[in-house]
Amino acid sequence: MKNKLVSPYDERVSRVCEYINQNLNETLTLEVMSNVAAFSKYHFHRVFTAYTGMSVTKFIQLARLKRASFRLAFEKEQRIIEIALEAGFDSPEAFSRAFKRTFDQSPSEFRAEPQWPQWHTRFDFHIQPHGVKKMKVDIVEFETTKVALIEHLGSPEKVLETAGKFIQWRKETGLSPVKTSKTFGIPYSDPKTTSPEKFRWDVCGSIESDVPENRYGVKTGEIPGGRCAVIRHKGSHNNLDNSIYYVYREWLPENNEEIRDYPCFFHYINFIHEVDECELITDIYVPLK
After folding, report:
1. Which residues share a beta bridge with 232?
2. How many Å apart are CA 24 and CA 88, to the nearest integer?
3. Which of 53, 102, 204, 272 could bridge 147 with an S-S bond, Cβ 3.0-4.6 Å?
4. Could you state, in order of their start, the residue ranges of all structural domains in the chain?
């Protein structure tokens, strides 16, 4: 049985969330957001809260603090006061209070040692559409790619901690420069159905030569070439499942394709510490026979 289409309310609330994420530096008024949603301003708050589980004011603050947390963790050269002002706070003190209230760490504590598992608990509210929206899927020939990789073994909530180590290795060695190399993520199972101790995720960057021994545990690997279905996901990595499941649930059976014995993998076109979350671009590859 075919799934129903995405409802108008799903689309309208999602449109507001996208507008907020694209305009974090602007003044986001009730009138503007209710117009974006095409809801009466008298009902907008209730509809938004019903779909997201929080008020629009809280959603805006969380979106700004989320961006700030990535700045703190991955842009060490940026001063905390600059991050606070970008997040819409008038002073570092107000920013610090809001940040600690949200993440149980001060900005300086988070910068020194981010507690990613605690951080993840604040962002499990993303909207799940109640229907299916048509997406564009292409078939490509992926070329065999030599990569440097670091294996993350354990809780998926600590993947960003492992990614931070890989970023540091890249900066120290220059063997897989972010600007000129490709960056991949390879999940070997679904984090929603795998126990934390069995979860594996490889963080990878393309390389030209083998990786020498190092203190980070980065080693040489390879992503095999072959036919792949590829779908371009735009926006938050929290919603990657929507695109992945579309390929498995809708596209594969409709096109009589079968999957190859290799995990799906992600090619990150840009990064959360470089662009706002709404501007993220990720190509999802599903290996085909």
Report:
1. 283
2. 8
3. 204
4. 8-123, 138-287
In the DSSP assignment, the letter for residue 2 is: P
CA atoms within 13 A on the CB side of 186: 17
Distance CA 101, CA 61 (A): 12
Amino acid in the structure at residue 255? N
Q: Collapsing DSSP states into helix, strand and coil, what is residue 184?
A: strand
169 φ/ψ sector (left φ>0, alpha ψ -120 to 50, else beta):
alpha
Cα-Cα-Cα-Cα dihedral sign, residues 147, 148, 153, 159 = negative
CATH of 138-287, one of 1.10.238.10, 3.20.80.10, 1.10.101.10, 3.40.920.10: 3.20.80.10
Please state the pTM of the whole predicted model.
Answer: 0.68
DSSP 3-state of 188: coil
The two structure tokens encoding residue 76 = 């060490």
- pLDDT per position as a tens digit, 210-267: 999 999 999 999 999 999 999 999 988 888 888 888 888 788 888 999 888 899 999 9
